[in-house]
Amino acid sequence: MDAIAQLALYEADALLAIAAATDAAGIEAVRIQFLGKKQGRLKDLQALLGQVTPEERPVLGKKFNEVKDRVTAVVEERQATLAQPAAIVDGVDVTLPGTPFSMGHRHPISQTIEEFKSIMVRLGFDPVDGPEIEDEFHNFEALNIPLDHPARDPRDNFYLATAERTFGGPLLMRSQTSTVQIRVMQNTQPPVRIVSIGRVYRPDEMDDTHSCMFHQMEGLMVDKHVTMADLKTVLRLFAQAYLGKDVVIRFRPSFFPFTEPSVEVDMKWGDRWLEIGGAGMVDPNVLKAVGYNPDEVSGFAFGLGVERFCMRRHNNTDIRQFYASDVRFLSQF
Ligand code: FA5
To answer: What are the distances in angstroms from CA 225 to CA 115, 190, 231?
Structure first.
């Protein structure tokens, strides 16, 4: 066989072997066999080149280089392809697109609670938690709500059907987050600046703005010289931070047994007012009962309805939708 034919055979064999290589080790073996510098088919061809006449040599030399370059290029291309991860892994084609599925997200009221907390932390209030199952002492007595007060009526509360009692009397699902005020003040000395957000329970008739389980945000600040002006400023700053600068809130004189004076807070919504919370200056009797000296410190407290703020922000007019577990509604948040 002449040298030209040998070169053609070399190239054909190399291309076949390259195509047959199925992994990185395989193509490396082919590279050594066909392009190896010390031994292998290329070396043999080079030896052949040394035996041709000086006239034939330039033509053959050129052909040799061309074939070598082509084989080298194809080997490199195959090396690059085989270096990529295999498309089929354990019988699964990993390059196929995945099956789309929808991601869940947090409930709108949970999102609201997180945002409330971060606003209050920026205003300098520390978040604290309290139990949802309470005793009469924390839910009523310590809040200056006497035994004959209508708020204690068993028909207006969820009492637990259990004989279990703590030192604080029969147990009930808390009807307000104000219970946390007492727990905090019993355990810390002033200055106090806390916020507590959580569920409360009342057997209220359900309507657009009432649910039998809802959330309140309780705020409490006790220090030297705390005044009603501080209370109004904190509530205004909070409402503006959550609903925007143009929110309009108003304060109406009201009564709560544990604050004096007391106010109710309304928020403008279109052409009507929506009640969003109760507030006031902590009653000196409450301060005394937890061991504070009302001549030295004063404080304000407020309790806001979380759902009602969220409704206003999203222009939702039916509180019941938050608890109907309808994904079509919840997925909008
Ligand atoms: C209280 O619960 C007092 N603890 C508030 C308070 C705290 C006063 C600290 C003084 C000092 P009230 O019962 O008004 O107050 O409830 C407060 C807010 O909770 C209401 O303004 C309203 O926004 C919300 N709320 C009350 N009942 C419901 C209900 N059934 N569903 C949804 N939100 C409600």
So the answer is: 29, 12, 12
